[in-house]
């Protein structure tokens, strides 16, 4: 999954950022912390240690403390973080109090899966419209919504003031769908269609490509195999062969720790 | 989507990394470059400029040059990168020459979408087994594969020497499925079930949570709205309110540039 990040850093006033420009990796972990915090709140917990929250969210506690420091949350020594306050801060930053309207374009198997995904409603989103270009699918009811024709996408997306458009169409039509969404005023797109969307600078695109996720895992399989199958010397030779010339160890690259999720 | 990264940095021999330990963000972009390079190769292109490849992959060219330098690919001034060589280098690093066996657990709507996803085969993976716990789904044929019962998952995954397991089950059963996959020798898991999997250090887990993707877009919607709706001063006050105490601008954090996809 990749993020096409456009637009510049928020303007500053008196040296204070207009909006905290969090590292993308931190933004991506905030929903994990929020999910863990909601579970803790349901159990009646009022505070949580950074270690406890980190374990529940599947990250290491040093990274969690650094992430939350971006929100101005440092917790209290010996007490930890106030669960309710942290939930409020994260939901505010993520803008989840807005209960944003989402439309879904393309109701094949993936579209059906997305339309039926219960997790959306519980996490601050309303799927308000479904679209498909296939006349056989138009009129079909999925989770109480009638599939509408993509010819009406631009008009309806504008009427429903859609905030986020989800594209689950074949690659060939994804750009046209994105153009229609953008023409309707949508400025955030979640794209499941392989390929790169061309969008104006004010539009954020996140992309989920299932094959790319597998290729990233394939890298780790290859890495692990090269380490277990070969003694260091041979493995070094293989790595050098794989990457002739300088094969810089990732950790020598500034910012790696931020880049490497964990 | 998040990466639970376990295991330590590869051992080194003579100061050479046993395997290039690339930044996670770089690894995630390599498949994009590969897809763009395959398109170029189909058009008969033998070389490509960093700007041309960057545009085709939807990243900026400085980031692309840095990413490829990790592979020891620097291109030739005035000529660019050799398409065939770069394809070979990226496919080698990603281990795509292995044509890895993938199994899919959970054939609901999402599972059906994944099982029917043509992109897998074309990008170095074979879906060789499908599993579900629902007796009504067992025996169903999807894309030429018969859905088998999860009771047989561990045995079959071992027999088929599955490299990567894809979990598309409800959250409640994801951990049990992961345990069975790991018991069968699977060391890479792609998890679509919300929540955190507990896995041993040698197992890599990548996670795709659709609601999390939307929450990340919600952050950008919120950020954009706060910038357009409010003059700098007011916006700064809002940001300060959202994050009492220090609201560190992300770009002050080392490594942000790596963390922020683009």
TrEMBL record, chains A, B:
InterPro entries: CoA-bd, NAD(P)-bd_dom_sf, Rex_actinobacterial-type, Rex_DNA-bd_C_dom, Tscrpt_rep_Rex, WH-like_DNA-bd_sf, WH_DNA-bd_sf
Keyword Hydrolase appears in the UniProt entry: no
Predominant location category: cytoplasm
Residue ranges of the TM segments: none
Subcellular location: Cytoplasm
Keywords for the protein's UniProt record, in alphabetical order: Cytoplasm, DNA-binding, NAD, Repressor, Transcription, Transcription regulation
Pfam families listed in its UniProt record: CoA_binding, Put_DNA-bind_N
Boundaries of every CoA-binding domain copy: 95-196
DNA-binding region, residues: 32-71
Binding site for NAD(+): 106-111
Keyword Disulfide bond attached: no
Family named by the database record: Belongs to the transcriptional regulatory Rex family.
Alphabetized HAMAP family for the sequence: Rex (MF_01131)
Function: Modulates transcription in response to changes in cellular NADH/NAD(+) redox state.
Subunit: Homodimer.
Listed name of the protein: Redox-sensing transcriptional repressor Rex
Gene expressing this chain: rex
